[in-house]
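Database export, one record per block. Field names are fixed; values are copied verbatim from the stored entry.
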Amino acid sequence: MAPQAIAPLTDISSWARGSGLEAVLIVLGAVLGGRLISWLGKRVEGSIDEGSEALVRSETAKHRHAVTQVLTYVAILVLWTVAGVLVLDRLGVPVTGLAAPAAALGVALGFGAQRFVADILTGFFVVAERQYGFGDVIRLSLGSGIAPVTGTVEDVTLRVTQIRTADGEVVITPNGAIMQVTNLSRDWARAVIDVPVPSGADVNVVSEELQRIGEQAYEDERLHDLLLDPPSVMGVESLGRDELNIRFVARTLPGKQFEVGRQLRRRIATGLREQGIVLAPTLDAVAPSGHAS
């Protein structure tokens, strides 16, 4: 049997100058194209931020932000998929012949990739239904036995949602694992404060003082732009043996309920103390709420 002929070096050189060079150029083009898409996405997000309000983003701006992030992610994924197919073709791999094995592999992976598919579908509906967007303050419920997570949305893709908590922690959650979302910054929000006072205190006097504090806070330039209307006294929320709780509520701009709540608690503690009204050991506030249209 005759020995197999060795391909001359000129054949390799010709391939390198032809298909090999094309494969390298395709990869290089994909890298540059991916960076260009990312740059364009950042530019679009920057223009959205410039066109939004200074204090709080509009719902349209939040949605456009989320859509831009998703489109950027999808465009880069499609670009690299096409580049991979073209590179395989230049390397002499029969792409059409891979159709049948790829289909069988897809069916096999389908059973193990159900979570991934659920993440993608959930992410699609999150963006399409405008459930939340970039800059929203949300609370994620991840199922029984897992404590809810509250934070500001920093990134939304078809697969994951990334939020940053008040402690600065970044929480990345697969969209398919989210059982319920509470949007605390849709349209408007509320800072709800339960003021504990001794049971023997005059409720009318305390309510009048709280109303005065709310009117002064609304007239303050630092809080006026954050409040939608003067804070109001809702009345006695609960009764105890030694104390009662009077509920004080303020409507705020989306996402500003935490800052307003801190300022109001400081004013309440100072104002009531000046009137000789002794507060209970703690001044509690119920969880701030958001309003969904």
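Remark 1: Residues 1-7 have pLDDT under 50 and may be disordered.
Remark 2: Residues 12-112 form one domain.
End of record.
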